[in-house]
User: Which sequence fits this backbone?
């Protein structure tokens, strides 16, 4: 009986530690943590320098590298390509910029903006997708009635009957085999929407990490192997159709390198990625008639690399942001909490053990707690037990969590 | 002796078990009629899209059912025992107390398993008729933590019931609440895949969680 009761106690103690290490830091941060605004960087084609916006106490702050602040109107005039609608409205849109005539249709077409968040990369995906007809002979695209999978073979499954359409499946499957595809697919990336100007199908990674472009053109398969640099492993592909027809997609490798698949005969172009970590940073791509801005944003850092349209670096800005860790609340948290546990993360849609381990400062508090507990319990029980020592060791390593656990779930002598 | 003990346990819980089973049946009827209607009034493609891209869970209404059934069975099994301290008699049977306590919990666990299994089987068969295996697999990944929450609610409520001291009851209840909360957290389809095995092993260990309270019950701790 005693042994099982002990087992049961330690089970409860461990559970209590796990639970408290999730709940306590959470409430602590809810109570004491502040939110620090993250600046957004823009590159002005007028001043040829960065200009930033950041949430202020009252209004949005607009400032440049020297700290000079701007009004909203001034900011808009400095970023005419980004704010062309407002400038048109105020009839302040310049006719030309840097010696290039500005045609509004051109400005619109060349404006690019998209962001890839960490949780879009790290999530469970059900690998079923609709293969939209790319040449429907109609102005609008239409959602097909079947979804495909690429497992041991490529198969189309009719949504209403849940049966494999064998004729169509064989057609596409053979096309894949002919182009040297190794089944099964380990990643299928596309833009399964009908609200887009045209359709570019899917970019698919086969089991040899090779890249293939698959489209459906008048119900016939279009399969093209895309040559990628040797030795890279693609982790995520962002494919969005755009009338600009400059790139099919952007992909990120497992080494955080970023590449573009261009319309120029599927040429692969590496773009600057120094400092990027897909696990915790948002990748923000902005573009206009003159520049491309590649931004890496998290709550700890903002980095922006400005390049010309051929991705030759022009200017770089990087700023380490202040977080709660840099203030007293962060210090106190490091003394109090040996670690913080969470099963969910804002950067990752998998449930997993996300632990933030404190630096060793927590040992100061936890060793004091452990000593106190040890002497106090020895005095109370009036004798020495090895289990008291074990409890003290638990407190030493788990600090305030362990103390709460062993005090609330006391030993049975 | 164990056979007789099992019979006694069965007498206590049978109507609760039957009630839970009826509840499951009603829920299954609701899930699948609802699914039929949703497909009928939209289109199959749309539902597939919603599931794949927006994590639409057609089985969402099932979420808290195992949790509730776990509480039912635990209350049915242990409330009569602790109300007039009948458990004291059980503990004076010529059997080792540990084994009796473990046996009581294993009986409850088995009952829950028998109650949950047909529910899962019908869901899997139903889903396989309408959806491809990828979606059914993602569904299984998503519902397993909910069923584990059912076992956990059983284990924790059992421990709370057997526990003689109110303060300690509160402590166990708080720990149980926050633990079970993590199993019922809202995530996308298949989100639990990485830690599912760990959670299953962890849950099985909780068969022991009421033992400490059992010892305290026997000693009449306050």
Assistant:
């Amino acid at each position: 009986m005693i042994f099982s009761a002990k087992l049961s106690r330690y089970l409860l103690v461990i559970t209590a530690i796990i639970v408290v290490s999730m709940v306590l830091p959470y409430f602590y941060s809810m109570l004491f943590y502040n939110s620090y605004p993250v600046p957004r960087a823009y590159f002005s084609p007028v001043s040829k320098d960065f200009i930033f916006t950041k949430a202020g106490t009252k209004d949005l702050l607009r400032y440049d590298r020297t700290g000079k602040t701007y009004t909203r109107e001034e900011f808009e005039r400095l970023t005419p390509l980004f704010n062309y609608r407002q400038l048109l409205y105020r009839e302040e849109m310049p006719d030309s910029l840097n010696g290039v005539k500005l045609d509004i249709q051109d400005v619109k077409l060349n404006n690019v903006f998209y962001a890839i968040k960490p949780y879009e990369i790290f999530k469970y995906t059900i690998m079923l997708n609709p293969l939209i007809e790319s040449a429907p002979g109609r102005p609008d695209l239409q959602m097909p009635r079947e979804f495909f999978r690429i497992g041991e073979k490529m198969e189309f499954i009719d949504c209403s009957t849940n049966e494999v359409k064998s004729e169509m499946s064989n057609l596409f499957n053979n096309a894949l085999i002919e182009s040297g595809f190794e089944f099964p697919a380990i990643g299928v990336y596309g833009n399964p929407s009908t609200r887009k100007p045209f359709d570019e199908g899917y970019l698919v990674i086969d089991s040899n990490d090779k890249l293939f472009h698959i489209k459906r053109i008048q119900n016939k398969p279009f399969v093209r192997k895309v040559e990628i640099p040797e030795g890279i492993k693609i982790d995520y592909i962002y494919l969005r159709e755009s009338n600009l027809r400059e790139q099919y997609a952007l992909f990120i490798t497992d080494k955080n390198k970023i590449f573009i698949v261009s319309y120029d005969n599927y040429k692969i172009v590496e773009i600057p990625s120094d400092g990027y970590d897909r696990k915790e940073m948002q990748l923000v791509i902005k573009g206009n008639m003159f520049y491309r801005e590649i931004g890496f944003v998290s709550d700890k850092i903002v980095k922006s690399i400005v390049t010309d349209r051929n991705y030759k670096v022009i200017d770089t800005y990087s700023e380490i942001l202040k977080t709660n860790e840099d203030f007293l609340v962060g210090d106190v948290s490091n003394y109090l909490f040996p670690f913080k546990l969470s099963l969910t993360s804002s950067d990752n849609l998998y449930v997993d053990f996300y632990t933030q381990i404190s630096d060793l400062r927590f040992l100061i508090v936890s060793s004091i707690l452990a000593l106190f507990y040890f002497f106090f319990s020895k005095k109370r029980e009036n004798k020495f037990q090895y289990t008291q020592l074990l409890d003290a060791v638990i407190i030493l390593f788990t600090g305030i969590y362990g103390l709460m656990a062993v005090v609330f779930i006391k030993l049975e002598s | 002796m164990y056979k007789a003990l099992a019979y006694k346990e069965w007498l206590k819980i049978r109507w609760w078990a039957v009630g839970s089973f009826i509840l499951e049946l009603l829920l299954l009827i609701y899930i699948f009629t609802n699914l039929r209607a949703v497909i009928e009034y939209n289109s199959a493609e749309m539902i597939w899209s919603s599931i794949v891209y927006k994590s639409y869970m057609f089985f969402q209404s099932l979420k808290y059912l195992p949790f509730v059934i776990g509480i039912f069975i635990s209350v049915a099994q242990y409330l009569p025992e602790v109300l007039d301290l009948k458990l004291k008699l059980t503990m004076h049977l010529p059997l080792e107390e540990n084994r009796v306590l473990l046996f009581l919990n294993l009986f409850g666990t088995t009952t829950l398993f028998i109650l949950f299994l047909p529910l899962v089987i019908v869901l899997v068969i139903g889903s396989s008729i309408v959806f491809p295996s990828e979606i059914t697999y993602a569904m299984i990944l998503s519902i397993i933590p909910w069923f584990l929450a059912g076992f956990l609610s059983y284990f924790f409520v059992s421990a709370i019931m057997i526990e003689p001291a109110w303060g300690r009851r509160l402590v166990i209840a708080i720990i149980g609440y926050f633990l079970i909360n993590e199993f019922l957290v809202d995530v996308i389809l298949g989100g639990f895949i990485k830690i599912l095995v760990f959670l299953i092993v962890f849950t099985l260990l909780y068969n022991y969680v009421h033992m400490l309270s059992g010892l305290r019950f026997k000693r009449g701790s306050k």
In short: Residues 2-219 of chain B form one domain. The two ends of chain B are 31 Å apart (CA to CA).
